[in-house]
Amino acid sequence: MGDRERALDAARRRAEAFLGTLDDRPVWPRASLDEMLQVFGTPLPERAEDPAAVVEDIAAKAEPGLVAIPGGRFFGFVIGGTHPAALAADWLVSAWDQNSGSSLLTPATVAMERVAGQWLLELLGLPSASSVGFVTGGQLANFTCLASARNAVLARAGWDLAERGLRSSPPVRFVVGADRHGSIDRAARFLGIGCAEVDVVDADAQGRMHPAELERVLDGGSGPLIVCLQAGEVHTGAFDDFRALIAIARRHGAWVHVDGAFGLWAAASPALRHLTAGMEDADSWATDAHKTLNVPYDCGMAIVRDPADSIAAFRTGGDYLVYSGLDPWDVTPELSRRARGVPAYAALRSLGRSGVADLVDRLHDNAVRMASGLRGLDAIEVINDVDYTQVMFRLGTDEATRELGAAILVDGTAVVTGAEWRGRAALRCSMSSWATTADDIDRTVHAIRALLP
Ligand SMILES: *Cc1c(COP(=O)(O)O)cnc(C)c1O
Questions:
Q1: Where are the domains of the chain?
Q2: Which of 22, 88, 93, 300 is at a distance of 20 to 30 A from 452, taking alpha carbons?
Q3: Per-residue model confidence as pLDDT tens digits over 296-317
């Protein structure tokens, strides 16, 4: 075998070995970052090393520092696993090495991304002419949509942002819910909107924006306006009331953006679609493929109702670039990039419409099973309405809750992560992995019961 074949062979064997341990290994890593830095932190080698030997060595040394994220009992943050078709397609993306920003240069991967985008719009019930930009994740999807939004609301006020810049432009009002995801504030920061300039609308106990409060906040101002709503609060999984809120925002001439990193996928399930009712009337939507759709990192989608608004914000004037209709680089901030939409294409094809619906339903069923198992344990209070995929719980005191969280990680059966909710410590589980079974839920509840004080 040549160098390349031996290196790929090593990667395949090592990948299979890792995936084969997922059911039994501790979910949380056994090695710390310092230990990993010790292991990998050798001086830069002076001379070449055999490619296959490098791959073998990396895989062996990384082993204790790896998190069992693609397994069935990683419930931390909101993180999906890896669907087989998406994983294998992702390997091909690296082998093909197609620089997929331009439709002239890389027709095969651009075509698959374009079709994946159309399928996505169809599955989620969003306007079929929308632009779909493949970016690294929800953070960049929020940024990309909001950059288009800022351009558009300023253009409506007669201000050409691309030409005249931000310094003397009319101020853009930026209105968000109290329980928005932190990536909304970061996106605002990247766009030159300061923390003190963000208008925050109160939310209810589950984290949903109060319509009456939105009305009150919007009545208090005028000018270019962006309103950010949310499908899937990161702790509770709650959905804003899109019907009511979008009607109010529209009356005030707002651009409405929906952060639906994992929540937008509820629209793909006939049983859960009601949670997203009305969200199709927004102007832009951010979502992730690496969460609910279970493609490998990284893959998010920035969706904008009118592609002209994406183009106005992102099309480059560089004279060495050739235009041929809508190019991937016309709708996102990137130029050169991997074909990260190809694994999404493979996952959507492999699952099919019913498979995506089943996947989302199963995540919800798992959340209901987890909540019911936890409610069966005396000391535990489940805090949220388990309408979607998130379960948040706590013990009687913050100290006991935090201690339980630490003990769960040491135990290794599962990973749940901590949060603060309404001023109190909480633990939260996110059902995001296609690999999670009812048995995984029961094993987790069993392990937690054994750790209770
Ligand atoms: C995860 C998440 C994001 C950020 O997405 P990344 O893929 O981590 O960049 C934004 N909003 C919500 C609601 C999320 O759950």
A1: 3-68, 88-347
A2: 22
A3: 999 999 999 999 999 999 987 6
Alpha carbon of 262 to ligand 1 centroid (Å): 8
pLDDT number for residue 367: 98
Q: Which residues contact 387 (CB under 8 A, 6 or more apart)?
A: 237, 238, 239, 275
Q: How far is the CA of 138 from the centre of ligand 1 (A)?
A: 4
Residue from 75, 139, 303 to probe ligand 1 pocket by mutation (most atoms less than 8 Å from CB) = 139
Q: Enter the tokens of residue 76.
A: 């931390």
The answer to whether the beta carbons of residues 193 and 244 sit under 8 Å apart is no
Ramachandran angles phi, psi of 394, nearest 5°:
-155, 165
Rounded CA separation 339/343 (Å) = 8
What the block records as the tokens of 106 is: 């890389």
78 touches ligand 1 (CB under 6 Å): yes
pLDDT of residue 326: 81
| Distance separating alpha carbons of residues 348 and 346, to the nearest angstrom | 6
What is the token pair recorded at 169?
């432009």
Query: What single-letter DSSP state applies at residue 346?
Result: H
Confidence of residue 324 (pLDDT cuts 50, 70, 90): low
189 CA to centre of ligand 1 in angstroms: 16
Q: What mean pLDDT is reported for the chain? A: 96
Encoded tokens for 327: 């190019």
- Residue 322 is predicted with a pLDDT of 52
- Domain 88-347 grouped into CATH 3.40.640.10: yes
